[in-house]
Amino acid sequence: MPLFIAFAAGCQAEVELAPSWDTTAWICGWTAEVNSAEGAFLERRPYRTPACIDAVMKDFDVDEHSFLVADQLANPYVLLGNDDAVWNTRLGGLLWAAWALHTTDLGTLETVWQSDLIDPTVLSSIEETTVSLHSPNIQSALYDWVTSTVSQTQAAGPTREAMASFHTGTRTLVVRDVMYGFAGSALLVHEIRHDVGAGHIRCSFDAASYCDDGPDGSYGFQLAVLEIARQRTTDPIFAAQLLHQIEGISQRVQ
Ligand SMILES: [Zn+2]
Predict the structure, then answer these.
(1) At 171, is the secondary structure helix, strand, or coil?
(2) Are the beta carbons of 191 and 183 closer than 8 angstroms?
(3) Within 13 A of 102's CA, how many CA atoms are on the CB side?
(4) Strand pairing partners for 167?
(5) Per-residue pLDDT reduced to its tens digit, 172-207
(6) For 212, which DSSP code?
(7) CA 101 from centre of chain
(8) 222: which of 49, 129, 190, 205 fits an S-S bond (Cβ 3.0–4.6 Å)?
(9) How far is the CA of 26 from the centre of ligand 1 (A)?
(10) How far is the CA of 187 from the centre of ligand 1 (A)?
(11) Can you spell out the DSSP letters for 127-148?
């Protein structure tokens, strides 16, 4: 597969990218037309069937046992009910972030316009990272890239440092806290970018915090996803929520 070789980066074995967006869209009945606060941050019951929950858990290779233990849930299908509390769990956060990544309309790389917040290097890195998937839209390219790269998703107890982390050797995504909607989607992209991107450095403004030494690392990808959503949305509430996220992250790209 020449495309994989052409765009191989770093010294890791290349991930075999396998699209799952289409299948999951079909199973779940989802379309990528959401780009509002209602969708991305408020709606938390997008899962209508056990099969849909199963599909997304399969996409992320979720270690179900670790989540049920950490979250004290009887089974994943409690998320189909009306109990809000079950969404304030690691599994609820992961599935909410996964849904928002799957369905938020981010357009195509051609429709993104340059801004101070999106370095051209990031766009070409996103293109290089996802080109072999032939996914027409940014959200499907990112969803397929994230789910192809993850070998396992586990739950763990919270730490002060990170809501989630990614172990590059085993390609294990570890979820330690609740991810919120589309902010969680951008965090998923951040974590997966660690697979071939650089790690973090200490921030120049705060030695206790982590930053990126360059524009197209994990924070650069996270920032780009938030900014692309902000460019696409016509919902002022969603735009304000995204801007709030963006302001927190932009200083971490040094
Ligand atoms: Zn990171």
Answers:
(1) coil
(2) no
(3) 27
(4) 172
(5) 999 999 888 999 999 999 999 999 877 899 999 988
(6) B
(7) 6
(8) 190
(9) 32
(10) 9
(11) HHHHGGGT-SSHHHHHHHHHHH
Instruction: Please classify residue 200 by burial: count the beta carbons closer than 10 Å to its beta carbon, then call 0-12 exposed, 13-18 middle and 19+ buried.
Output: middle
Centroid of ligand 1 to alpha carbon of 108 (angstroms):
25
- Look at the pTM and tell me if it is higher than 0.85: yes
CB count within 10 Å of CB 235 equals: 17
Q: Report residue 46 as tokens.
A: 């997008």
Give me the pLDDT at residue 39, please.
Answer: 64
Residue 187 structure tokens: 């965090």
Reply yes or no on whether the pLDDT at 4 is more than 60.
no
Domain ranges of the chain: 16-250
**Mind giving me the DSSP string for 84-125?**
GGGGSSHHHHHHHHHHHHHHB----GGG---BTTB-HHHHHH
Q: How far is the CA of 180 from the centre of ligand 1 (A)?
A: 17
Tokens of 133: 């998937």
Crossing angle of helices 218-232/236-250, nearest 10°? 160
Distance CA 172, CA 143 (A): 16
3-state secondary structure of 228: helix
In this structure, are residues 232 and 105 in contact, taking their beta carbons and an 8 Å threshold? yes
Q: What is the identity of the amino acid at 170? A: T
CA of residue 103 to ligand 1 center, whole Å? 24
pLDDT tens readout for residues 8-47: 344 455 667 778 999 999 999 998 777 777 766 666 678 9
